[in-house]
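Progress report, Aim 2. The chain analyzed during this reporting quarter is listed below.
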Amino acid sequence: MAETKDKVRDLLDRLPDDCSVDDVLYHLYVLQKVEQGLADVAAGRVIPHQQVAEEMRLKWQIGRVK
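Predicted structure tokens for the chain:
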């Protein structure tokens, strides 16, 4: 828990004094998503870039046919 509070304090220290609550919430959201992504990588929950590119290519090709 202390680590989380330290991260929030660090974030608040980096933001400008005139930031809004929405600014703080946005940056907390981004921080959370980055940490979640890093945890996924560490746990091996990833999809190779080539596989994503191929799936997107097929999706767009199928979309054009309709």
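The two ends are 52 Å apart (CA to CA). The CA atoms of residues 39 and 45 lie 8 Å apart. These observations will guide the mutagenesis work planned for the next reporting period.
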